[in-house]
Design goal:
The protein is of the alpha+beta class. The chain contains five helices and 13 strands. The protein has helices spanning 2-14, 27-37, 41-46, 112-122, 240-248; strands spanning 49-58, 63-72, 76-83, 87-93, 98-102, 106-109, 134-145, 148-157, 163-168, 174-183, 186-200, 203-213, 216-227. A hairpin with a 5-residue loop joins strand 8 (148-157) and strand 9 (163-168).
Length: 250
């Protein structure tokens, strides 16, 4: 009889249901994990200026130039690419207005979705305070990117169209983004791949960004990041050709 009692005692253990698989984290948690993976909000909040230098290549046109990007907290930016034999291509934001200028197309002021994307990108600490720029984050499942499982997060910004981001499930790092853009040929979706993350003064930053557009790929390679550099205030002033456009506005 004792043997039977033992059998009945063990039976519930043998037929106990398997543990349920762990639930996916929320989109908010995925975004916050990414902030921690790159250094944490406190480290980002200490960052006041950034100067990045490297190269930018337009594959379809066979053009490659020296790239310099300046940023100052909270939302000022200026980028210049010097293409040999072509001249300079510039773009920037003074926190209110976003613009672009190059030798082929001249100067223009960015409007609508293009302006909204540019102003978000101009924020030096934007990802650390993503709630300030996006009113909703939704998890849309998982998807492999270059063989690595990633969380797919759809972000609805305060202004402009939705973006889709892919975060590595293991590292928490952003590895791919789909961003709607407005070009002179019409609206397109740019696919950005972020790779070669390296530590830069306590912040983990991508050093290679490849942007895929319908008519070309743009390959950005960063050789150096410098933080805490003194940047003259007039670096973010509107250039004269952009000022002329502003003055023409009714």
């Amino acid at each position: 009889m004792k043997r039977y009692r033992c059998s009945f005692v063990l039976l519930p253990l043998l037929v106990a249901p398997a543990a349920a698989p762990a639930a996916d984290p929320t989109a908010d948690a995925i975004m916050d994990k990414s902030v921690e993976a790159t250094g944490g909000r406190a480290a980002w909040d200490k960052l006041k200026t950034e100067v990045a230098k490297g190269s930018l290549e337009l594959t379809a046109m066979g053009m490659k130039g020296d790239l310099t990007m300046y940023k100052a907290a909270p939302d000022k930016s200026y980028t210049v690419i010097d293409f040999p034999g072509f001249g300079k291509a510039e773009e920037g934001s003074n926190g209110q207005m976003a613009w672009a200028s190059n030798a082929m197309q001249g100067a223009r002021i960015k409007e609508g979705d293009e302006r909204a994307v540019a102003l978000r990108n101009a924020s030096l600490q934007g990802d650390a305070h993503w709630h300030d720029f996006y009113k909703k984050a939704e998890l849309a499942g998982t998807e492999d990117v270059d063989g690595k499982p990633c969380y797919k997060v759809i972000l609805t910004p305060n202004e402009g169209s939705q973006e889709t981001r892919y975060y590595d499930k293991s590292s928490g790092l952003l590895v791919k983004a789909l961003v709607p853009l407005v070009t002179q040929e019409g609206p397109v979706t740019a696919e950005a791949r972020l790779a070669d993350y390296r530590d830069e003064g306590g912040l983990l930053l991508p050093h290679t960004i490849t942007q895929k557009l319908p008519n070309t790929d743009i390959i950005i390679k960063i050789d150096s990041f410098k933080h805490g550099e003194t940047i003259p205030d007039n670096r973010f002033d509107l250039p004269d050709d952009v000022k002329a456009l502003v003055n023409k506005k009714p």
